[in-house]
Design brief:
Largest sheet: 5 strands, mixed
Number of strands: 20
Amino acid sequence: MDQLKEFIIKDNKRLRCGYTTGSCAAAAAKAAAMMLFCGHAVERVDLMTPKGVLLNLSVREIGMGKDQVSCAVCKHSGDDPDITNGILVYAAVKKTDSPGVVIDGGIGIGRVTKPGLDQPVGAAAINRVPREMIRQEVQSVQERFGYSGGLYVEISIPDAVVLAEKTLNPRLGIVGGISVLGTSGIVEPMSDQALLDSIRAELNLLVASGESCLLMTPGNYGQTFLKESLPVDWKRAVKCSNFIGDVLYMAQGMGIVRVLLVGHIGKLVKVAGGMLNTHSRYGDCRMEILAAHTALQDGCTPDLIRQILDCATTEQALELLSQTGRRETVVRSVLGAVERELTSRITGNMIIGVVLFSNRHGLLAQTENVPELLGHFQKT
């Protein structure tokens, strides 16, 4: 297994970084394409990740045929706990008559069976960034060898057939295997306490600068929404990850008196159910909570409740609610529950505003105090 030189320091410990299944798939596809055109074995392959870290990975399980080449790259998760650590990610590449690069999944790669995920229903669960990485790598090999025809790339992870049963994939509607993931190409290990310490340090800097207002969002979705949809200086936002309650308590203890929480409904709907740590290890009650708030609406039918409960994502559930004209009332009901949970848990003089959004529908709802709070975070 190839280990990276990159590491991070957390809790005064040196933790090794790893690389994603997406990086493994792209590296294996690149190596297979190279061998298809050059005709001899390739023992190592370079891959530049989206994060800008150059990987040099060993190539395993080489199978060379006349019209197809397959090989594998071993996944390394560094010091991050990951059930996929050590598995082999395979890529098989063959020439086709039709131009372009077709990417599909074989054994161990899940199939999407419900709408609302990164890939459409029926597609292999190879997410957008890994797909683009694979495409770019095999196209670069095509150009290098002057090949203008098409290529078919099949990614497979045989060991993942069993591993998938230990993930949330079946519940999400991804069947038959796991997803090929990764947005940076690199896995950075991060313990809960280490992440909280990092957030605490960020809040300390904020307070030290004389600030008493906090703009917070769970992650990248929220940061993108802030940047594109709200009149605020989005760079001031602190990412709280899943630790919504911990960060609010932390901020209150530091003297912060105003907080604007901006989050995707898929994350904050859990808060409506009393989960102030929204990590999936503590539960996944999204559909149950949405179904409960839908059931509160006049004229709601049992069939609609069943459909909500069967949704894989909140985005899919919102589509159902939109079709029945109930989206706005249900979202307002959820928002009210989020506000009640936060204000009942975080006592004292802290003022908390909440913005709910959806990647597909944009701004969904906000508490009445949001316009006033926005004024504290305006762009300068």
